[in-house]
Amino acid sequence: MVMIRPIEKGDEARWRVLWRGYLDFYESSVPDEVTAKTFERILDPNAPVHGLGAVLNEELIGITHYIFHPSTWSVEGYCYLEDLFVDPAIRRSGVGRALIEAVRERANAAGATRLYWNTQHFNETARALYDQVADLSPFVQYRVANP
Q1: What is the model's pLDDT at position 121?
Q2: Residue 94's pLDDT is what?
Q3: What SS3 class is residue 25?
Q4: Which among 83, 70, 77, 80 has a CA at the least distance from the CA of 34?
Q5: Binned average pLDDT, 10 residues per bin, the chain of 147 residues
Q6: How far apart are CA 139 and CA 22, in angstroms?
Q7: Cβ(85)–Cβ(25) under 8 Å?
Q8: Residue 120 in contact with residue 26, Cβ under 8 Å?
Q9: Three-state DSSP class for 146?
């Protein structure tokens, strides 16, 4: 049975494998210092970045990272699910849904008035799940790199 729990220090090696898989899927990369800082933030109870892991047979098989932040549209604030990745060998087994639900529970407990995330339009496998658990936003995202 899959257990969802906060990411722990002992998860770092396997977390890095899943993190690399996530970045590779999106044909992206980040410097090693960003990866190290991300893991450090996940473990820091005072940092705004939180991480959950899906564990099966004592192995980390999925990860999600989320951030609570204030909003000009809500007194309580929002929760942004920034990253979600499940080992490809385990996909379509409910792990992604369980990770989203665990973030939803934490967002609800924190009083967030919105849980939201982004994905690329071509990510059809993930979007099939997202269409079942959330509403598609009509907004289009624009970016300025290194402002």
Answers
A1: 87
A2: 92
A3: helix
A4: 83
A5: 96 98 94 97 96 96 97 94 95 93 97 94 90 91 84
A6: 24
A7: yes
A8: yes
A9: coil
- Integer CA distances (angstroms), 31 to 24, 37, 71, 93, 109, in order: 13, 10, 29, 32, 34
- At 104, list the tokens: 């939803």
Rounded distance, CA 82 to CA 74, Å? 19
To 10 degrees, the CA torsion angle through 26, 93, 16, 4? 130
Residues in the chain: 147
pLDDT at residue 143 in the model:
87
145 HSE (CA, 13 A, CB side): 0
pTM over 0.90: yes
Phi, psi angles (nearest 5°) of residue 37: -70, -35
Contacts 24+ apart (CB under 8 A), 117-123: 117/80, 117/81, 117/82, 117/84, 120/26
At which residue do the structure tokens 């564990």 appear?
Answer: 55
* Amino acid, single-letter form, for residue 124: E
Nearest residue to 65 via CA among 78, 48, 84: 84
Question: What DSSP element (H or E) covers 40?
Answer: helix 32-43
